[in-house]
Amino acid sequence: xxxxxxxxxxxxxxxxxxxxxxxxxxxxxxxxxxxxxxxxxxxxxxxxxxxxxxxxxxxxxxxxxxxxxxxxxxxxxxxxxxxxxxxxxxxxxxxxxxxxxxxxxxxxxxxxxxxxxxxxxxxxxxxxxxxxxxxxxxxxxxxxxxxxxxxxxxxxxxxxxxxxxxxxxxxxxxxxxxxxxxxxxxxxxxxxxxxxxxxxxxxxxxxxxxxxxxxxxxxxxxxxxxxxxxxxxxxxxxxxxxxxxxxxxxxxxxxxxxxxxxxxxxxxxxxxxxxxxxxxxxxxxxxxxxxxxxxxxxxxxxxxxxxxxxxxxxxxxxxxxxxxxxxxxxxxxxxxxxxxxxxxxxxxxxxxxxx
Length: 355
Ligand SMILES: *[C@@H]1O[C@H](CO)[C@@H](O)[C@H](O)[C@H]1NC(C)=O
Ligand SMILES: *[C@@H]1O[C@H](CO)[C@@H](O)[C@H](O)[C@H]1NC(C)=O
Ligand SMILES: *[C@@H]1O[C@H](CO)[C@@H](O)[C@H](O)[C@H]1NC(C)=O
Hints:
It comes from Iris pallida. This protein has 355 residues and is of the alpha+beta class.
């Protein structure tokens, strides 16, 4: 809609005034459409009648919000998710893949990390495989604090004292599990909150979804989540989410930013963007249908306008919910088969726009 509509609008905008100008000139003398022939000293005057009698009140529904996905203004900004690359999908399907911004705690004497395609989610198959080589009380004892992985979120997680954070993760293991899930400062030294993730050998033999609530004992705007252990084993993790328990109207948007939007009293909200919807190439464009349903099962996509992966946890459904929570009309934008560099045949548009 946005893509094609805007392009046509620009072209139409050029022909319209041209025709109109020619009509005006016709009244005086001959039609002179070529700018080259115009007199350099030509002056024009424009009279605006701004008297109250001739004014019109601007309708309230003309005032609203245009949301645009710019440099993580969505996930990492308005959207309260704190983990970046929570499904380990950003590195692509060729495994082992890059897990950035996740990183390892410990070195290869103690732990090896890789990715494989064993996720329980068929539309985003990549999972993290962690093999812990060290073991407490054995010859290769784990370092104090354990080994594992951490995720710093988008430029560090803002963790605040007294607030509760909901951690959701999916885990599988070949044996018993004894991990610590913690929120810590960016150097790992300050512990803000932690909870154990413990099970016997059978507990996580199949993929299991775990939910934990962590209440922070301190404030640090540059924090990270850590999953650490001091126990030998082979473990898999996938779809790891950290969100503040309190969000704007309980629907996942950052509370203070949601309130600021509400205070603007918008009558509409346009989402999820302009170029973001279009994509640089059609295969990277935003497809609304893939951004609804359970968040773990959304395939995510590469945002080639800003060059980062997005898991589409902030999707079409969430924006519609935000519109409702703000009391604003949703002005929803869908891709209708055109990107900045390629497009489908007009006859093939239906699958893009169909509900
Ligand atoms: C995105 O925002 C971050 C944090 O403010 C900044 O460091 C970075 O330069 C920005 N990136 C672009 C491409 O503007
Ligand atoms: C791993 O770290 C330990 C302790 O710091 C060190 O003794 C060991 O040499 C390191 N191993 C490698 C392969 O870097
Ligand atoms: C889990 O590991 C911690 C830290 O090494 C240890 O103190 C605790 O006893 C372990 N718990 C179980 C159930 O093994």
